Amino acid sequence: MTRVDFYVLASTDSASTDPAASDTATSDPATSHPTATEPESTNSIDSRTDMVCKLAEKAVRQSRRVFIHTDDQDLAKRVDEALWGFRDDSFVPHCRVVCTDHTDGHASTNTGTNSGTSTSTGTTYTTQAVQEPVAIGYNTEPDLERSVLINLAESVPPFFSRFERTLEVVTEAPGVREGARERYRYYQQRGYPLHHHKL
Fold first, then answer.
1. Per-domain residue ranges for the chain?
2. Cβ-Cβ contacts under 8 Å for 188 (sequence gap 6 or more)
3. Residue pLDDT, tens place only, 132-147
4. Count of CB atoms situated within 10 Å of the CB of 81
5. How far from 88 is each of 92, 101, 134, 135, CA to CA, in Å?
6. CA 62, CA 69: separation in Å to the nearest integer?
7. Which ranges of the chain would DSSP assign to H, the alpha helix?
């Protein structure tokens, strides 16, 4: 059964969203309550992206293959760029995988250069995408050779149970926190083992 880990990053923006400054703070993202409804800030996105890079790097060092799932094309690009140089002394080999048969009407192309294998989901995996230890997907299903999923989407991906581990990286920003509570409940109600890391 897939193990699910929630990594909750403390807000760096203001005391109003700082869990230490809130009487409603809790270690359970399913029961914490937002104090405001503003969108996720740039600082919050940067800290979230930095944590994703660290988790991906750690997994690769443990010889695990990682799929980073987003439902936001800009966020996928941001993670891609961050992985190129988030540390001066290391590099995390990765590539982006893009669905070639979008049902939402958006045209897209693969970022790899060689032809690869197709799945029944309309996603074509280039040779590069299959070989790299980290793949970043935007509204795309992963190939079958990965053991760690890092979910940055607002909903639970339908394929998460294919993985040994699913990592949810969330911030205290109200918009992100609300989605995290829903995902936490989803996993909890279905009996998946949950682990919570407040950072």
1. 3-25+50-198
2. 30, 194
3. 999 999 988 888 889 9
4. 11
5. 11, 37, 19, 21
6. 20
7. 42-61, 73-85, 127-131, 174-189
Looking at domain 3-25+50-198, its CATH class is alpha beta
> Which among 7, 110, 2, 1 has a CA at the least distance from the CA of 53?
7
CA quadruple 143, 149, 152, 154: dihedral sign: positive
**Cβ-proximal residues to 162 (8 Å cutoff; 6+ apart), any chain:** 142, 144, 146, 149
Q: Is 7 helix (H, G, I), strand (E, B) or coil?
A: strand
Per the structure block, which two tokens stand in for 109?
């192309």
The whole-model pTM stands at 0.76
Q: Tell me the pLDDT tens digit for each residue of 27-40.
A: 444 444 333 334 45
How many CA atoms are closer than 13 Å to the CA of 16, on its beta-carbon side?
8
Residues in the chain, overall count: 199
- Using an 8 Å Cβ cutoff, are 112 and 95 in contact? yes
The first and second tokens of residue 175, run together, are 């918009």
Q: What is the DSSP string of 103-134?
A: SSS-----S-SS--EE-TTSBEEPHHHHHSSE
CB-based contact 187:28 (threshold 8 Å): no
Q: What is the dihedral of CA 47, 53, 59, 63, to 10 degrees?
A: -170
